């Protein structure tokens, strides 16, 4: 059914589609992980970490929407369902139960670090086949690396 | 570690905690499902369904936050992680790939219907042990039933 | 034609439907009455009563919309047409022509008083069959009683 | 009691007063009719018609207020009570119960058409006696004819 | 010096210029008079009259600007200087010193009445030579007559 | 296909349709011309003329939309396509390349002057057949004449 | 003097009046206490606690107004004067002078805990006599318990 | 514990500290008194006095915060607790129960008058030791004297 | 009639009243003069001077209101009527007819200079009798001198 | 006349200038075409297509301004006049007269497709000579491809 | 060249000019120092100090603009160039590289303290020659002392 | 101390760090230079240049913050202190004292030109090592070249 007239060749499209689908899953999971810790963090830095995590969530939700709609715009059906996210995410397991503030910060440093590594690979592989998608991924990487810095500075 | 001074007895807390955790999982999954269809819907009603689904997402994300923080306020650690959501959600499987607009509307009717049934049970069981949590669940049910009506009216 | 999947039993639905339809008619008529006096009030307190009545209109129009859509959400067609309102409203006849400010205030005290009495009965009868509808009616009653106090205080 | 110093002669005032009172009744009924269908419309176009009708309601409520206050400004008491509206409105009977979307659009085409015809007559008769009132009626007619076009285009 | 290319004949321009210059002087003086009473009113209705007068000032200042710029647009230099206003205004002398609230309302009824009479004559004489200027004067008259009603209703 | 129920007779409609179509073409071209000079103006007054031209563009785009939708509301299909505009516009050729600021101002004086002349004729011919359309054209003329004055004053 | 027509029986009114008056005193004192610590807190967490306390103040001031006006709406004169608050408040003595941040957080945990206990009793006793007042008290309790959680999490 | 590096000598600081602490207590009590009457006023002027009092509350709450933080900025712990306010306020006893509108206005005239007298003394004594604190007190006095005028004008 | 309880002695009040009344007249005339030139300026700098003058008008209207209400707050009736302004203003005659842009700027330099000189004298004479009024006049002087600089810089 | 100091070599500038001028013409025509169909669309999807087209217009107008000013910033005079647009646009002829909704959607799919193809070529050729211009064209292409997807999804 | 008509004598002007120029340099450097630490702070309090410093920057940038324009208004050319700031600032050397949060807070305490001492001297010396400039410096001092308190409280 | 996990190799990081540090210094100095001229410009174009320079300042301050935080995100401590800026800036000496408007425009053309040249080199050298930083520098260059065009057009 339904076929979008894609501006990319089949080979290019395959590369870009994988990059976008991978980015989507990582970003959706990052939002879920950040919310989980937003609700469960405890400790003296509770309030500041609680607020900071919602800024991560806002940024990441916006980017996941952009990435998914970019896939649709290229004629590729995006998949951001819970089961897919649980199976394919690049983020390691988030701790259950209450989380001490320093552990919360460390968890974000790890999660962001993992996503950034994969996102930079996506920036590299999409450069040739689709500079438009690459530009979107570059913008997302900039934001993630900014949040990454802040959490690292906070646990220094 | 960390213990909040709960205003409820242990038995009441157990009932309320289950209701809130169940509501949280349903609402997080509902947001993921609505976004999935928001990106994948096709057909003549594409635009109107696409926009309507984002209103569902906005409503449901707000409510999931309220429910999770209500659990925390009672001293119960909420769990909204991807794996938990994938495992415990009350919503049936959302179709992958492109979704015809009438199927999209039908999927929402089903998903909302499933969550509403469970939510009404939670309203009943929390009435006695914690009218404060019940009041939150009543407000959520009202919103879900309003969205439910609109999708039903749309497929009439 | 068109049948919404109602979460209520038939008996409960009948009770709730009557309550919502009655509330709708009362609220629509209350808005018309308040506007009528808003245009026709004269006297030293003209400006303050004129402005106060528009606040009543704003509140009441919002609530009438909520009540009508709540009926639709339960699968019951709401009826807010002029003839229905003229026939079924719980508000006594509003005076035609210019209205002296003290009479205007008194008219609102009476109209609000009549609607509040009926609204409290609706709060009582809906408690068991549908706490969701009841919660909406409780919120409306709170607002109406606040306006009622202000007009009473004004004619003291 | 209360007499405003009218800038019009008695004969002119009589003509203008009738035009304004007629316009008021038509506009109040149009708002009630549009709300009625806003709540009761069903079908694939539910959402777009539902939203479109609230734009009609917003426009028409604003204009009914302007017309009523224009009458007051000329010293003529306006009458927008439910019974008056039910008796004098130029709009034919609005269907009760659920309304299929195409019927909803058709009902608005009819209702707007009826009001426009009468409004254009009022524009004509007020030109001489009171260009100020006429200017208000011209502005209202422009808005009604714009809505009329949209509903006609929608059922084309 | 400086000559704007006027779209009107010389005779028409003379008529319109007089109407606009007259309107400008009346409106500037009306704003000064309303401010004067805004500062000097005393009595039980102090606050409501004080606020109402600032609404008159806002309306009238906006209109005086429109009228003056309309004159400029026709190539006629407008004159709104204090001496000109003091000499040519159609408003009778405003009382100095404190003003009792009922006297304040009466003063506004008189001032607005005087300006309205002259403004309606301007509407009549500009109809033929320049419907564009007439349309502006009609809109101003509508606003002034609305304020006139409110102050009359307030002293009823 | 598609026929809107027009409130005008055929003869009147023909007159009004020509006036609206003519106004549409003039306004669309005026916006294009103003943008062209907005981008190409140079000289000491660069910034002020650059900004002023965007105000012209904003005003004129709004009015062109109103005029086109007024035609649609009367059942007449409006035509604002590039070729039509290039062929039928009442504005003389706009200079290509960089434009000295005083020439830019002069070009606007000319373009506005040409459109105003034609717009005033349209105000005259529509008075009888459709005062509603005439009122729209009067409002547009007022705005154009205000801009005309400003550019004339600027080159004085 | 002045008697509002109360919708409650005398016995019910007595119960509800006591609940509302008690809630008012507690909330006014809570706002004063939170401001006191807002000004006097010192330590590494100064800024975050300083800001957090103003959020408590905003919430609590809003609720105290609602509660007092609810009493008025039932015809019961509310008393929120300094002496009454100093005498009847349920909050223990707030420390004078500078307050270390951890002590500040602990003081809020205690103050909120004390008010919540009393507020839950008020929710229970008002359920039968006045569900409208109860609904207001439930909403307040939800907000207080949310703040309570945050301060507890912060000192964990 | 905690010592701020004060820019004032000990003697100057003592004078300024007393002035600021006195101002704080007066302003907190003024807000409580204004709220008390806001809730309890009755009579024809109910609405206007009710609204006017909330403007006093807004002004005064803002100023009390500025004054308290000014004390902290000079290294002096401010005290705005209920007991301190009840004991040290310069405002006479506020009547309990319902308050007739003219009595409400008179009570505000008295309360504001009492605070203004003391505030002017504080302006005088702080001039030499700390023009920064004095400037804050001057601004507060200006606002209080404006409110004082309005209530006096209202009871004239 | 009406006597405000003045916080100043009779002698002090006389000095302050003269300063405020003088300031009021100067500021009202300054606004009229600035508007006059706003409408009549021509030349290459038309737009920038036209806009700049409206900023003067906005500033000055705000200050004239503050000054007049300050007089009222001290129990002195302010007089800002056209005839008073025409007679007592410290601004020299403003040219009638079109004004070349450089002359417009020069006129503002003169007018502002004249008012500033008088305003600085008022700052000096009010220092002792009423620092509250002085503070208001200082703030006004700062704004006037800022505008004065800009017009001087513009004609350099 | 007027020469901007270009940061590009002559050869590079020629390439970039052609790309920007081509993009400008396409975007201006796209806005005209979208507006044309916005006014002329009819059919059941009238409202949704009507609104969607205005979003295209908003996006495209913004981008055309950016592209034209980018040309100016490189010292190249942009040309967006009606005749140039009519002659050089890459969009095929837009149908005149009323347009059925499905045809309207198809027309947009075609027009956007044509512009996207050309825009992607411009992205390629500008990469080397001017990455700054390329970045702007990439952003435009992303937006156009998003709109392209939506219209395709809508006609699926 | 260019001479502003100064309202001060030469001797007074010299004193005031030195005070304003000194204040300008201190404030510009304070903004640069605060930004430097905003970017380089690390440690558990990273986020709160990072945000707090931007509030300092906002305040100080606003004040530096006011001070510089005040100098211009008195006819004195202000100098806020990098070299001047580097040479004349009253703030000691800001540490390069990463800054631990407690050191960051201490650095601000020192920097603010140094500027406050100099600012208070400027308040003293400008009192006689120019109360207008003094009033500006008083307002700045109040803001700086408020920030000073907060950083001191934070390192307590 | 503090080490951020950099996503770049050491060699790449060195290149990118130099580019970012260089950009930071240029942008901070550009803001200082623009403010300096903002305060000191005189001449007929005073107001337009004065306003235009603040737009430069706003743009450049935003970009300097982005660049500094990008350095931090890569683990490189940014240095924007006054002495560093005075020593390393790529902008030539800004004239002290009053600046004639045409000289002001020329100074900006020079300053922007110098920064653009260096910024384009940074775009080139960062392309390979870090496309994320490059993308930020490209966006900044676009903005600077837009401002550069405007000032050049203004002195044409």
Can you give keywords for this protein?
homododecamer; 156 residues; mainly alpha; Ferritin; two-stranded parallel ribbon; 5 helices; elongated
Give a brief description.
Twelve copies of one chain form a homododecamer. The first copy, chain A, is mainly α and 156 residues long. The first copy, chain A, has helices spanning 10-40, 46-73, 82-88, 101-126, 131-154; strands at 41-42, 99-100.
Please tell me about this protein's structure.
The structure is a homododecamer of 156-residue chains. Chain A has 156 residues and is mostly helical. Chain A has a single domain, classed as Ferritin. In chain A, 74% of the residues lie in helices and 3% in strands. Chain A contains five helices and two strands; from the N terminus they run αβααβαα. Chain A has a two-stranded parallel sheet with strand order 1-2. In chain A, α2 packs antiparallel against α5 (131-154) and α4 (101-126) packs antiparallel against α5 (131-154). Chain A is elongated. Chain A starts with 9 loop residues before the first helix and ends with a helix. The mean pLDDT of chain A is 96. The A-B interface holds A 1-2, 28-29, 32-33, 35-36, 39-40, 42, 65, 68-69, 71-72, 77-83, 85-86, 89, 94, 96-98, 100 and B 1-2, 28-29, 32-33, 35-36, 39-40, 42, 65, 68-69, 71-72, 77-83, 85-86, 89, 94, 96-98, 100. Chains A, B, C, D, E, F, G, H, I, J, K, L: It comes from Streptomyces fuscichromogenes. Chains A, B, C, D, E, F, G, H, I, J, K, L: GO terms for molecular function: ferric iron binding; oxidoreductase activity, acting on metal ions. Chains A, B, C, D, E, F, G, H, I, J, K, L: Residues 18-153 form the Ferritin/DPS domain. Chains A, B, C, D, E, F, G, H, I, J, K, L: This is DNA starvation/stationary phase protection protein. Chains A, B, C, D, E, F, G, H, I, J, K, L: InterPro entries: DPS_DNA-bd, DPS_DNA-bd_CS, Ferritin-like, Ferritin-like_SF, Ferritin_DPS_dom.
């Amino acid at each position: 059914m339904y076929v979008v007239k894609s501006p990319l060749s089949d080979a290019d499209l395959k590369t870009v589609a994988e990059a976008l689908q991978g980015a989507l899953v990582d970003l959706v999971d990052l939002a879920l992980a950040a919310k989980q810790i937003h609700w469960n963090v405890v400790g003296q830095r509770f309030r500041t970490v609680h607020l900071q995590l919602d800024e991560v969530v806002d940024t990441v939700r916006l980017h996941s929407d952009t990435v998914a709609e970019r896939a649709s715009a290229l004629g590729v059906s995006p998949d951001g369902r819970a089961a897919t996210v649980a199976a394919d995410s690049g983020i390691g397991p988030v701790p259950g139960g209450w989380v001490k503030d320093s552990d919360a910060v460390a968890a974000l440093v790890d999660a962001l670090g993992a996503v950034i590594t994969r996102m930079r690979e996506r920036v590299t592989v999409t450069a040739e086949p689709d500079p438009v998608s690459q530009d979107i991924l570059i913008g997302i990487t900039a934001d993630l690396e900014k949040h990454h810095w802040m959490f690292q500075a906070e646990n220094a």
